[in-house]
Amino acid sequence: MTDQPNARPELDEAALAFAEAVFESTRKGDSARLADLLGRGLPANIRNHNGDSLLMLASYHGHLDASRVLLQHGADPQLRNDKGQSPLAGAAFKGNLEMTRLLLDHGADVESASPDGKTALMMAAMFNRNEIVELLLARGADPARSDMNGVTPLAAAQSMGAQDTPRLLTDALAARN
Predict the structure, then answer these.
(1) Residues facing 50 on adjacent strands
(2) ANK repeats span which residues (predicted)?
(3) Is the Cα dihedral 11, 12, 17, 18 positive or negative?
(4) How far is Cα 175 from Cα 170, in angstroms, rounded to an integer?
(5) Helix axes 97-105, 130-138, angle to 10 degrees
(6) Which residues, other chains included, contact 111 with Cβ-Cβ below 8 Å and sequence gap of 6+?
(7) Contacts of 151 by beta carbon, 8 Å cutoff, 6+ apart
(8) CB-CB contact of 152 with 144 (8 Å)
(9) ∠ CA 124-111-162 to the nearest 5 degrees?
(10) CA-CA distance, 60 to 108, in Å (whole number)?
């Protein structure tokens, strides 16, 4: 017991080592181990010291099977890390089309934004991820939405020198009118 009302309980070395092993298994994409641990009661939405959930780590590192296992065990695709980053934005940034599709299929909000207003569409557009831009637009991403600085996906793509996504976004904007 502690005198501080919101103090976290101290974890012993064995618990800390176990937690680190779980996060390392996730980063490596060990879907069988994750399925076993989740089946024995491991919470699907635990986070590390950066606020990264197991799903954030699995999806960011491109582990489709591990991400699927986590989602099947109730991992929240909307759960953000301490920087306000979502698994969907990470998948878009990394250019992983299948991961982006998996997250959307399991409820990730296509319009979800980081604290500065950046969406997965902006991330994909900036890094010229054509197929992901097309998928996000098809799933309802708003090509006219701007971040907190007034930057749209088109402006972000142009400022980063993206070769193809500006045309996709221009076409999407024209189709709205």
Answers:
(1) none
(2) 50-82, 83-115, 116-148
(3) negative
(4) 9
(5) 20
(6) 119, 140, 141, 142, 145
(7) 122, 159
(8) yes
(9) 20
(10) 14
Q: 19: which residues sit within 8 A by CB, 6+ positions away?
A: 11, 46, 48
> 142 and 111 in contact (C-beta within 8 Å)?
yes
Token reading at 89? 């934005």
Q: Above 80 in pLDDT, residue 2?
A: no
Provide the residue type at 98 as one letter. Answer: E
Q: Helices (H), strands (E): how many in the chain? A: 10, 0
| Predicted TM-score (pTM) of this structure | 0.89
Q: How many residues does the chain have?
A: 177
**Token pair 């098809």 is at which residue?**
138
